[in-house]
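Exercise: predict the fold of this chain.
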Amino acid sequence: MPPLNITAIDHCSVLITDLGKARWFYRDVLGLPEIPKPKPFDFVALWFDLGAGQTLHLLQKPQPDTRSPRHFALRVPDAKTAREHFHMHGIETQETGPIPHCDRFFVSDPDGNRIELIQWIEPYNPAVSGAERLD
């Protein structure tokens, strides 16, 4: 049997409770272009284009997800500028443990969903920066 040959992440979905606040954060703060959800969907959802055929789906539910370390990461060309951008919008940034050759931090959307912003200064090379063994 041939391997699956997965080529990319297609989309990521997160739960939201307030459509207006979520739209403001993802469209106006992050600057993601909003696109229409598929016609057959009969539930409230916001879709955003991440480029290269990848999308972000925000699904409205009555309660937010529980707080956890779960997150998705968005790549940025300059983490320092990204930090300043969030501070200008009154959004707190959370620093995190280092990874060699990158600068990264977290923000939370209005429902507490964690989002990592990451700038790779050099591409990740597991042979150089990876752990000595797999967990």
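Check your answer against the key: Residues 11-129 form a domain with the 2,3-Dihydroxybiphenyl 1,2-Dioxygenase; domain 1 fold (CATH 3.10.180.10).
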